[in-house]
Amino acid sequence: MPSKTFSKAIKAIRLIFSIALFLALFFLPAGTLKWPEAWILIVFYMVSVLGVIIWLKKNDPELLKERSQRKKNVKTWDRILMLVYVFFLMIMLCVTGLDAVRFRWSNVHIILKIIGFLGFVPGFILGFWAMRENTYLSDTVQIQEDRGHRVCMTGPYRFVRHPMYVGVIIAMLSFPFALGSFLAVIPAIIIVVLFVIRTVLEDKTLQRELSGYKEYTETVRFRLIPRVW
Q1: Is residue 226 part of a domain?
Q2: CATH code: domain of residue 73
Q3: What is the separation of C-alpha 155 from the centre of its chain, rounded to a whole number of angstroms?
Q4: How many CA atoms lie less than 13 Å away from 212 in the CB half-sphere?
Q5: Are 34 and 104 in contact, with CB atoms under 8 Å apart?
Q6: How many domains in the chain?
Q7: Which residue in 69, 100, 136, 138 has its CB near the most CB atoms, within 10 A?
Q8: Sign of the alpha-carbon torsion through 133, 144, 19, 26
Q9: pLDDT of 116-173, one tens digit each?
Q10: What is the residue range of 77's domain?
Q11: Over the stretch 2-44, which tens digit does the pLDDT of each residue have?
């Protein structure tokens, strides 16, 4: 029991630290809390994450556990890619605050901001759809042998092999416009490139290590964009 209590306390501390860091990266570069676009995005993100957690706890607790725990058998290249991703995500948040609020280098039209916010909707829906269909949708690249890992071929997986990444890419490209920063497009594009690289490496790993995946690629030929790639 003490070990469980200690573990929960550590998780709570990590969560509080993550939220504090997240808010700091938004508002310290901006130099103010008066940034409506950022608050709208934060509320949308928090509500979405909370909704997904509640849904997973009720409908797929095994996936929730899988995505919540620290992994040991993660591919080295995946660790490196995710570290680089986090680095550029932090840069994107900082650049956005500096550009859109503190110095106002960019002048993003309200129409582009609306389009940016609307872009989060299909990005989230696609990500959630992939999570609902694929109970093995881990946040790291690994074969979950302990859970009887199998190929998912339903839902969005009928059209592309990595629909979750499509959702992430849509969200990343929407972010700079929603918050009003053209400069933030640069780190956003770098993040997109990182996920394209991850797609290629993950696809090769799954073809090599996951039974039935190579046959699946012959049925669903496109990784991210139907009829393109």
Answers
A1: no
A2: 1.20.120.1630
A3: 19
A4: 7
A5: no
A6: 1
A7: 100
A8: negative
A9: 999 999 999 999 999 999 999 998 998 888 888 999 999 999 999 999 999 999 999 9
A10: 2-219
A11: 556 656 666 668 778 888 888 999 999 999 999 999 999 999 9
